[in-house]
Structure formats: structure tokens, C-alpha cells
Specification:
Layout: H1 3-11, E1 35-39, E2 42-45, E3 50-53, H2 68-78, H3 89-101, E4 107-111, H4 114-129, E5 133-138, H5 167-170, E6 173-177, H6 181-191, E7 195-200, H7 216-227, E8 230-234, H8 246-251, E9 257-260, E10 271-275, H9 277-280, H10 299-312, H11 317-337, E11 343-347, E12 350-354, H12 363-367, H13 371-383, E13 386-387, E14 396-397, H14 404-416
Parallel strand pairs: 3-13, 5-6, 5-7, 7-8, 8-9
Antiparallel strand pairs: 1-2, 2-3, 4-10, 9-10, 11-12, 12-14
Length: 419
């Protein structure tokens, strides 16, 4: 069966034919490509077409697909059983590895997804502070828990009254534009005694890559400290990608809590939240804030994640960042020569090429970009074997598996695009 046939069958079995909405490729006026295999920097679809991958399962495959060390660790773990529903050595060993790289995570709790990590961190912040409200930023995505589904970037733009999300749930969600520190100050002036936390993607990743302006993250840290609220860094995308210690290492800001996603499982379904010991000890069974999960600390994911993080400590982050910058600079030059204005946002091995003649600093500016031009670009790049996220307001990612030849083939494909 080819992708078209699989999609036709999927439409009869799954809403929209997909298990995650963006995969339907509606933003690029296309249909899903069904992937059958992945290795290194490449994907192969069910028809056998090969693609240079710049999605990498939405970020975590920083070593590329099927890294042999990570694979070996996962296979060895499977040979001892795929799930115990009990404590295992791997969860302790992975936690030690995470703490080594992110010292602010003095204690942590493993979960099964980034969404579980963020919703649990919010519950903990509320339980620790005894407050209900929290601040999130328009265009930041923190998973699909109800409280976060207000102006949630590429995933959704939910307002009170949206089916399935009661008004009462998001009545405690206070919104501000990303990079607008004054708006956050106003929330604290009006509701400071009721705000449990501020949760932020330190680099926004779901309205395209939007970088924090100078002073923004430090300003959030200062406001939270002043008002007794917790600062939560959602590093599901940025964790271990922008630097070995994530965005908090790159920008020198220490949050109270951090959430991590599938990169800590080498791409397996996993998440984690953690932070200061005194806060984490409010979690059951020590404290009264409840959270549980049968698959939390899954032995296969723990083994793969530990191997992944150990391998990353041997990698040359500055070199990959420099190579990524050279790639994106040349890509932008190629598109500008075709008469298309392009703004590049890049940090570490993450980037977004916005079809825009001005910088993008928040969701409003992201929404003003030329996404029709991106759709044309996406389809022609896919036709030439370059796999990009099927929406112009998503991040792209390079990896340590990409070769210079891969980058040059990508640029050759861009040179051939016609608008």
C-alpha cells in the first residue's frame, strides 16, 4: 500500500485519519506521508522514497534515528522485559544523568509524556503555593491538558466555550504575549496573591522558533521571586538541544521547576518534571499532591534515555550550531534571491525560516507571516526529498547525524523551488 491508500483507510479508523492533528498536513494543503523506516538523518516512506529529516520526531532525535548505542541499550532492556509497573534501576540511573546536566532538578518524577510532565508540574505548583491562577504565554504549547489549551500556538487557539474545555478550567489561565514582560507585571499587580506560577517555553517552539528578548527570562525570574510564585521552564523542546543543560544553561536562568519530554527516552514515549527538593517533596507519597503512572519509569525508555544523554555529553554542540547557522543563512539567501522575504530564528540546532520581512517576537507577528508561500516551499522540498514539518509555524531541527552532503542536497533542493 502507498501513502494515499493508507490515508484513505486511516480516515475510516481515526478522526481525520491521524493520531495527532498536525500530521494531517492541512496547513500545507497536502496529505500525510506514511513513514516506514528511519536511520541516521533519513526517513523512508512506504513507497521507498528517501528524505533528509528536519523534524526528528519533533526534536528528540538529536543523535539521529537508530543511534547504535541507544538502540543497543533499548534492545538489552527489552530482553529483560518491556514493563514492570514497579521501580527499576534504570529510573535511578537516568535521574542521576539528568541531574548532572540540569542541576536545578534536585529531585524529579518520571512520567510518560511531555503533557503529563507539564500538567503535573502545574498541579504541584498549585499545591505548593496554595494558589490557583497561573500565567502562560499566547503561542506557547504545553501539551493538551485542559488548563493549557488557551491560545496554545500551533496546537490550538482555544477560547472559553470550546467544546470539551470548560470555561471554569481556563478561567484561572492568565494570558500574555510572549516577550511582553509588562503584561506579566500587570497580572501580578492585579492577581499576585493568587498566581501559583508562570510557565514558559524559554524559547517558544510552537509558533515557530521565537527567541526570548534580552531581559525577558530574567524579568520572569525576578517577578516570580518577588511574588512568591514558581517559575516553570517547559524544556520539552529545548532540553538538551540548545545546550547540554538546556535553555536554562544557555540563558543562565534557574527555574523552580523544569519539564522535559521524549528526548530523555531517546525518542521513546517519556517525560519528566523536577526542581527544588523542598517543592518536589510536596508530591505523594511524601506530600499530598497526587500523581501516578503505571508506565512511569518504563525500563526500556530509561535505558535508551540514559544512553542518549551519555552520548550527548561527547558531542560538539558549538560545531553543530555553527553548521546549522551556515545552513539557515544560505537557505535564507536562496529564498530572498527568489523575491521572498525571509526572517531566520535560530538557536543551537533548532530553527525556523519565516516568510516575513520583519523579526518574529510573538504569536501576533508569527500569524502575519506568508504561510501560503511556505506551503509551496514545503511541497516542492518534499518532492525533492527534504522532510520538513507540515506547517510554517513549527521548528525545524538539525542533528549530529546530518552530514555536510545532506546540507548541500537540502540547499540544492531549495535552489530548485519555484514560487
Amino acid at each position: 500500500m502507498d501513502s494515499k491508500s493508507f490515508y484513505a483507510k486511516a480516515l475510516t479508523l481515526m478522526p481525520g485519519g491521524v493520531n495527532s492533528p498536525l500530521r494531517a498536513c492541512k496547513y500545507v494543503h497536502s496529505e500525510p506521508v506514511f513513514i516506514e523506516n528511519a536511520k541516521g538523518a533519513y526517513l523512508w516512506d512506504v513507497e521507498g522514497r528517501k528524505y533528509i529529516d528536519y523534524v526528528f520526531s519533533w526534536g528528540p532525535m538529536l543523535l539521529g534515528h537508530q543511534d547504535p548505542v541507544v538502540n543497543a541499550a533499548a534492545h538489552a532492556a527489552v530482553d529483560h522485559g518491556s514493563s514492570y509497573g514497579a521501580s527499576c534501576p534504570g529510573e535511578v540511573l537516568l535521574a542521576e544523568e539528568i541531574q548532572k546536566l540540569i542541576p536545578s532538578m534536585e529531585m524529579m518524577r518520571m512520567v510518560s509524556s511531555g503533557t503529563e510532565a507539564t500538567m503535573s508540574a502545574l498541579r504541584l505548583a498549585r499545591g505548593y503555593t496554595g494558589r490557583d491562577k497561573f500565567v502562560k504565554f499566547i503561542g506557547n504549547y504545553h501539551g493538551h491538558a485542559d488548563a493549557f489549551l488557551a491560545a496554545a500556538g500551533s496546537a490550538a487557539s482555544i477560547v472559553p466555550g470550546t467544546p470539551g474545555v470548560p470555561e471554569a478550567v481556563i478561567s484561572h489561565t492568565l494570558l500574555a504575549q510572549y516577550n511582553d514582560l509588562e503584561a506579566v507585571k500587570r497580572h501580578f499587580e492585579e492577581s499576585g496573591d493568587d498566581i501559583a506560577c508562570v510557565i514558559v517555553e524559554p524559547c517558544a517552539g510552537n509558533m515557530g522558533l521565537v527567541l526570548p528578548e534580552d531581559g525577558f527570562l530574567q524579568g520572569l525570574r525576578d517577578l516570580c521571586t518577588e511574588h512568591g510564585a514558581l517559575l516553570i521552564f517547559d524544556e520539552v523542546i529545548t532540553g538538551f538541544r540548545l545546550a547540554p543543560g538546556g535553555a536554562q544553561e544557555r540563558y543562565g536562568i534557574t527555574p523552580d521547576l523544569t519539564t522535559l519530554g521524549k528526548i530523555i527516552g531517546g525518542g521513546f514515549p517519556v517525560g519528566c518534571f523536577g526542581g527544588k527538593r523542598e517543592i518536589m517533596e510536596y508530591m505523594a507519597p511524601v506530600g499530598g499532591v497526587f500523581q501516578a503512572g503505571t508506565l512511569s519509569g518504563n525500563p526500556v525508555a530509561m535505558a535508551a534515555g540514559r544512553a542518549m544523554l551519555q552520548r550527548l555529553q561527547e558531542c560538539d554542540y558549538p560545531a553543530l550550531e555553527a553548521r546549522t547557522k551556515a545552513l539557515t543563512d544560505e537557505m535564507a539567501a536562496i529564498l530572498r534571491a527568489k523575491g521572498k522575504p525571509v526572517y531566520v530564528a535560530q538557536a543551537g540546532s533548532a530553527f525556523t525560516l519565516y516568510f516575513s520581512d520583519r523579526p518574529v517576537t510573538n504569536m501576533v507577528e508569527s500569524g502575519q507571516c506568508d504561510y501560503d508561500a511556505f506551503a509551496v516551499y514545503w511541497r516542492q522540498m518534499m518532492d525533492r526529498g527534504v522532510y520538513l514539518a507540515p506547517a510554517g509555524f513549527e521548528c525545524a531541527f538539525t542533528s549530529f547525524a546530518h552530514s555536510d552532503e545532506d546540507f548541500e542536497k537540502t540547499l540544492e533542493a531549495a535552489r530548485a523551488v519555484e514560487f
